[in-house]
Specification:
- With 590 residues, the protein is of the alpha/beta class.
- It folds into 2 domains: 432 residues, Rossmann fold (3-Layer(aba) Sandwich), CATH 3.40.50; 101 residues, GMP Synthetase, Chain A, domain 3 (2-Layer Sandwich).
- It is 29% helix and 23% strand.
- The chain contains 18 helices and 28 strands.
- A hairpin with a 5-residue loop joins strand 22 and strand 23.
- The chain binds adenosine-5'-triphosphate (ATP) and magnesium ion (MG).
- Adenosine-5'-triphosphate binds next to strand 14, strand 22 and strand 23.
């Protein structure tokens, strides 16, 4: 396929770190050859009757063993508060919450929506609900009334756990639209206006609660996707997903006993639940929670002061740190930081290398989706990083590149460096079990035992996968297929460029023209000379066929609240088309 292979041309640099202890995943090939999901399952305790319950594996079992007094949650509040909650204490809290639900008549399978900032009650509510076999659906705390109502309706929420303030501002007005919502539990002590105060209920509840028999196929989580490509879908996950959460935390994030782990994603999104709550706890580490929003200085202070060992963040945050410059890092001792990973969007090679420069180690990109429930493709601590590559499939995951056939089938492409859809062999534990209320859409994701991810990628001769773009975002220009990622990665190499998003705009001759939207670093002004300089850089690195023809400067790029650039919105605006579902839109600038 005629695509300028910029990413393929990037040298494979071995960015090794000297660390005293061996990584959990020592030799990839060896683990690949011996891995079995049965053994991954055996890393967990299971329930006496043979079932599997996420909360039991994450908290209860540790509270009964040698980790009982280890800090499970290290909470750093917005006002400088600091609370260390041990596994034993967390177990008591979540048992109380489970008893509160039982007291309200919540049955296994009932839906509990949790809409809170990153406060301890959120973690107690999520885990307590899972313990009681209620289905948890996290809602991002900055959602407005409409997205809240839509999700509560789709999910038939019976209980909402939120704060009095969020309720007053955003939920009270839609209460009439959601008749299934029987209980609104608000943090603190004040009931009223159709809400019940949570704190007194917790205090009155017993901390004795036997983990109920839980079938691994019992529904556990309802996660709405980010809405980057359209209306968010409600992906259903079951308790068995914990097998994947745990083993990916172990292999892909290299979590080890005694670690302090920080996942910066909000638990309103799947990363913040799978890796901001479940995986660190099943692995028995200390899970750091920072309530405050992004701030480069505060983040570096936190990494240093709390001696974070493993840090899991996202490309948007990394680009913001890059924008803040290395000066912000100066004076911070981050020698404790052992492993840094990123997910959510393609991680530009520039960002990987910046990690090496600024922290002495690269960011390790990994790839997965709400639908996959856990990490599927990753750069591991023990493996060479190829900047710009998502890494290799998790042992136990069969990933491949597929071509679509005219008869609706697919053909797996064996040859390296051929672009096609990234597909995964079905059957891993955290695979979604459905899109709630959208059976046909769910079925369309599968062909011949493969799950179609909707992302385009290629695999190189060493088995590393390279992200090309979402299938919807790929640009067709003069017979070339261009993935926005490779163009964006080149654009952000330019010293003035902080972020870039690339779309195709219709053109009578070329089919589509490549158009770039660019946000500048502080201290740079958008003018004609800069436009020419950026275009020149892109043309030199990509060739005239692939380089953007057009550049627009923007103060901010539109993003989802989970930090993903919304190319579809840039395109809709460019073409004067309907903007579609904007429920997850965050920063915006028309
Ligand atoms: P929606 O499905 O509603 O449009 P979404 O796909 O953004 O939203 P998520 O499930 O949160 O919702 O995101 C998964 C997608 O994010 C992947 O399909 C992929 O396009 C992108 N992604 C995640 N990690 C990476 C990565 N490391 N490299 C490239 N893309 C990534
Ligand atoms: Mg998606």
């Amino acid at each position: 396929m005629a695509v300028a292979g910029t990413s393929a041309e990037i040298r494979s640099v071995r960015l090794e770190k000297s660390r005293e202890r061996p990584c959990n995943l020592g030799d990839y090939e060896e683990v690949l050859a011996t891995f079995s999901w049965a053994e991954a399952r055996a890393m967990l305790d299971g329930l006496p009757g043979g079932g599997l319950n996420i909360a039991h594996e994450a908290v209860i079992r540790h509270s009964l063993g040698e980790r009982a007094e280890t800090t499970a949650l290290l909470w750093l509040g917005k006002r400088g508060e600091r609370r260390a909650i041990s596994y034993r204490e967390l177990a008591d809290e979540i048992r109380r919450f489970a008893n509160v639900l039982r007291g309200l008549g919540v049955e296994p399978g009932d839906r509990v929506f949790v809409m809170l900032g990153r406060v301890p009650e959120l973690y107690v509510a999520v885990l307590g609900s899972l313990l009681a076999k209620a289905v948890v659906s996290p809602l991002f705390s900055a959602f407005g009334p409409e997205p809240i109502a839509t999700r509560l309706k789709i999910g038939r929420g019976k209980v909402l756990v939120t704060s009095p303030e969020i309720y007053r501002r955003k939920v009270a007005q839609i209460r009439g639209e959601v008749p299934d919502l029987a209980h609104v539990l608000v943090t603190g002590r004040e009931s009223g206006d159709g809400t019940t105060a949570l704190q007194p209920l917790l205090e009155a509840a017993s901390d004795q609660f036997e983990t109920p028999p839980t079938d691994p196929e019992d529904m556990a989580l309802l996660h709405f996707t980010s809405g980057t490509t359209g209306t968010p879908k409600g992906a259903i996950h079951v308790h068995e997903a914990v097998v994947a959460h745990n083993v990916t935390g172990f292999y892909a994030l290299d979590l080890r006993p005694g670690d302090v782990f920080w996942c910066t994603a909000d638990p309103g999104w799947v990363t913040g639940t799978s890796y901001g709550i479940i995986a660190p706890l099943t692995n028995g580490v200390t899970n750091l929670v920072l309530e405050a929003e992004f701030d480069a200085g505060l983040w570096y202070e936190t990494l240093e002061a709390e001696k974070v060992d493993v840090w899991y963040t996202a490309p948007t945050a990394i680009r913001m740190l890059m924008k803040a410059g290395k000066e912000a890092l100066q004076g911070h001792d981050l020698s404790r930081l052992r492993f840094m990973a990123s997910v959510g969007e393609p991680l530009n090679p520039e960002a990987v290398l910046w990690g090496q420069e600024a922290f002495g180690q690269p960011f390790h990109d990994n790839w997965w989706q709400t639908e996959t429930g856990g990490i599927m493709v990753a750069n591991y601590a023990s493996m060479a990083v190829k900047p710009g590559s998502m890494g290799r499939p998790l042992p136990g995951i069969e990933a491949a590149i597929a071509k679509h056939l005219p008869d609706g089938g697919i053909e797996i492409v064996e040859a390296p460096m051929v672009e096609g859809e990234l597909v995964l062999k079905t059957g891993w534990p955290s695979m979604m079990r459905g899109y709630l209320g959208e059976e046909a859409r769910y079925r369309k994701c599968f062909v011949g035992g493969w799950y179609l991810t909707g992302d385009l990628a290629k695999r190189d001769e060493d088995g590393y996968f390279w992200f090309v773009g979402r299938a919807d975002d790929v640009i067709k220009t003069s017979g070339h297929l261009i993935g926005p990622f490779e163009v964006e990665s080149i654009l952000i190499e330019h010293p003035a460029v902080a972020e870039a998003a690339v779309i195709g705009v219709p053109d009578p001759t070329a089919g589509e023209l490549v158009k770039a939207f660019v946000a500048l670093k502080p201290g740079h002004e958008p003018d004609e000379a800069l436009r020419r300089s950026i275009l020149g850089h892109a043309r030199q690195r990509l060739g005239a066929a692939v380089a953007p023809k057009l550049i627009d400067f923007k103060a901010n790029l539109p993003k989802t609240r989970s930090g993903k650039i919304m190319r579809r919105l840039l395109k809709a605006r460019e073409l004067g088309l309907p903007e579609g579902d904007l429920s997850t839109l965050e920063s915006d600038e028309k």
